[in-house]
Amino acid sequence: MGDLTFRIALLRGDGIGPEIVEASLPIISKLNHDYSLGLEFVDVDAGDGALRRYGDPLPQHTMTELEKADVILKGPVGETAKDVIVPLRQHYDMYANVRPAFTIPGLKSKFEGVDLVIVRENTEDLYRGVEQLVTDDVAVGLKIISRRASERIVNFAKTIALTRRKKVTCVHKANVMKITDGLFAAACRSLKGSGVEMEEMYVDAAAANLVRRPQAFDVIVTTNVYGDILSDEASQIAGSLGIAPSANLGERKSLFEPVHGAAFDIAGRGIANPTAFLLSVVMMFEHLGTISSNKNFVAAANSLRAAVLKVYSSGRNLTPDVGGSASLKEMAGDIYQSLV
Ligand code: ATP
After folding, report:
1. Active site residue: 125, 218, 228, 334, which one?
2. What is the whole-number distance in angstroms between the Cα of residue 272 and the centre of ligand 1?
3. Which fold has domain 1-96+243-340?
4. Is 204 an annotated catalytic residue?
């Protein structure tokens, strides 16, 4: 297995993206070397900079490089964020958007002991954008829910739950949208007797419960629109946007990126928090470990996660968004030194 190489398309992004990626690369290179991961990084151009240079935020030569890559590691993109991520999700049918939300010991937040994952269906629902004006004053949009996509995402959520606390909360509103959300709810019910505890929750109750008792959740699975909203809510529970990672997973290609945006307000000041990007790298390692069955990836993921947590528990080199006064370079340097 040690001889396998993986090609990672590295999209540095805009705003704080390039500085976060630059500060994180020594950490990733050390893990690549120490655990013989066989990673090769290829820079690809997309986002606001690509729009300026080529008139297209996702130019053809970038798509050609992405095609050759095994996975995509992406920094935050600025104004053109949606013009990059939405076509990529569609093109590669990255059907599962996975967003863990957890509290980090040592980091002040309103909550303690939160450890949940939101699994959002990524390809259909109202975000398909099938909408039109019926008259000048009336518009309609189609909520598209299929049995195939619902079963696929529910089964994916089950797989994740089996590696965790074995509980899936299926979020929908099937009491009102009896046919569309009803189909999704039916897919969830297929989980009964499959080795995980399955509970159903209406989306309004889920939004309330997330801020009332987030500790009660393990894996939440839901449709595209509800997942978009609930995952932003959940990322706030952890205390800072600067720590929330995410994955977009598909059969053929997967993409890993921080939840936060380009944060132009702090770009160039050297104070951005690298945690969300580095925890996205942890998710990428875990994914590569799954598809390659190479245990070194799991070891590298555990090492990186532990190094990040160690820096939070010592509290010495934290960036301002998480209550410290360290620079991005100081925090990344401490994470590097904490690798074992
Ligand atoms: P988008 O629309 O792309 O989500 P946004 O401006 O609404 O962009 P973000 O760019 O994610 O949201 O950032 C919101 C605020 O959170 C920023 O202004 C910044 O102060 C803070 N922030 C986000 N990411 C980080 C980070 N990695 N480190 C420190 N602060 C951050």
Report:
1. 228
2. 9
3. Isopropylmalate Dehydrogenase (3.40.718)
4. yes
Selected catalytic residue, list 56, 232, 310, 329: 232
Q: What is the mean pLDDT of residues 31-53?
A: 97
Whether residue 83 contacts residue 54, with contact meaning beta carbons closer than 8 Å, is answered with: no
Token couple for 2: 């040690």
Report the pocket of ligand 1 as residue ranges, CB < 6 Å.
16, 81, 241-242, 260-263, 265-266, 272-273, 276, 321
Domains of the chain, by residue range, sit at 1-96+243-340, 110-238
Catalytic residue among 173, 312, 321, 334: 173
Confidence of residue 1 (pLDDT cuts 50, 70, 90): very low
Catalytic status, residue 127:
yes
pTM: 0.93
Task: Please tell me the distance between residue 20's alpha carbon and the centre of ligand 1 in angstroms.
Answer: 13
d(CA 178, CA 183): 8
The mean per-residue pLDDT over the stretch 62-78 comes to: 97
pLDDT in tens, 318-329: 999 999 999 999
pLDDT given at position 3: 60
Q: Residue 26 corresponds to which tokens in the numbers above? A: 């020594």
- Phi (first) and psi of residue 196, to 5 degrees: -125, 150
| Token reading at 222 | 């839901």
173 belongs to the catalytic site: yes
User: In the chain, what percentage of residues exceed pLDDT 70?
Assistant: 99
In the CATH hierarchy, which top-level class contains the domain 110-238?
Answer: alpha beta
| Nearest alpha-carbon partner for 183 in 175, 192, 174 | 174
